[in-house]
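Page 37, continued from 36.
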C-alpha cells in the first residue's frame, strides 16, 4: 500500500529483527505489551500472524527503508482497532500523520469498516492526545487504558482536515 511518501508492506519473518529492535527499545515500548527479546519467538509470532485472517501487521517504509510498524486487529462489528504503532526517531516529521491517515484509508476504504476503536495506555499522553485531536472520543477507561471510539464521520472530517499529509490517493496492492 502506498501513500503520499510512505508505503506499508505486510510484515514477515525477515522483519523480526527490525520489529524486535523497536519493541525492545525501552522508551518506545514502555506503553506496549511486553514481548520476548528472543528473535526466534518474534519469528514464531510472525509465522502465526501469516496464517491469521483477523489482523494486518505492516512495516511502514519511507524511501524504501523501514521506519516503523502498525497493526489493525480486533474487529468488532463495523469497527476495527489499530495499534502497535511504533516509529523510529529518525522518521520524517510527517510520518505519524501520514501513517495514521493510511490506516484509516485502508480500514475504511479498502476493508469497509465504518469506524475505529482504540485503547491507549493512560501514561501515553502524546498518543492519546494525537487520537483526540483526530476526533477520537474517550468512551471508557480501565486501570491502565483510555478507550476511544471514532465514528466514520469523525474519521472523514479528520481525513479532510489533514489532507495535506495524504490527499486520499492511497494505492492498495499487496503482493
Amino acid at each position: 500500500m502506498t501513500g503520499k511518501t510512505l508505503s506499508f508492506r505486510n510484515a514477515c519473518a525477515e522483519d523480526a529483527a527490525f520489529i524486535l529492535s523497536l519493541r525492545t527499545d525501552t522508551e518506545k515500548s514502555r506503553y506496549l505489551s511486553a514481548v520476548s527479546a528472543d528473535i526466534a519467538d518474534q519469528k514464531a509470532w510472525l509465522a502465526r500472524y501469516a496464517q491469521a485472517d483477523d489482523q494486518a501487521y505492516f512495516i511502514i517504509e519511507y524511501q524504501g527503508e523501514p521506519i516503523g510498524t502498525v497493526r489493525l486487529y480486533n474487529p468488532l462489528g463495523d469497527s476495527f482497532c489499530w495499534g502497535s504503532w511504533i516509529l523510529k526517531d529518525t522518521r520524517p516529521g510527517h510520518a505519524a500523520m501520514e501513517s495514521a491517515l493510511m490506516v484509516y484509508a485502508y480500514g475504511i476504504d479498502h476493508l469497509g469498516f465504518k469506524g475505529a476503536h482504540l485503547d491507549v495506555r493512560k501514561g501515553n499522553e502524546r498518543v492519546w492526545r494525537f487520537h483526540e485531536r483526530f476526533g477520537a472520543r474517550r468512551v471508557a477507561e480501565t486501570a491502565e487504558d483510555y478507550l476511544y471510539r471514532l465514528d466514520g464521520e469523525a474519521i472523514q472530517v479528520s481525513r479532510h482536515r489533514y489532507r495535506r499529509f495524504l490527499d486520499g490517493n492511497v494505492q492498495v496492492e499487496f503482493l
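The first strand starts at residue 6 and ends at 10. Flag for discussion at group meeting. The mean pLDDT is 91.
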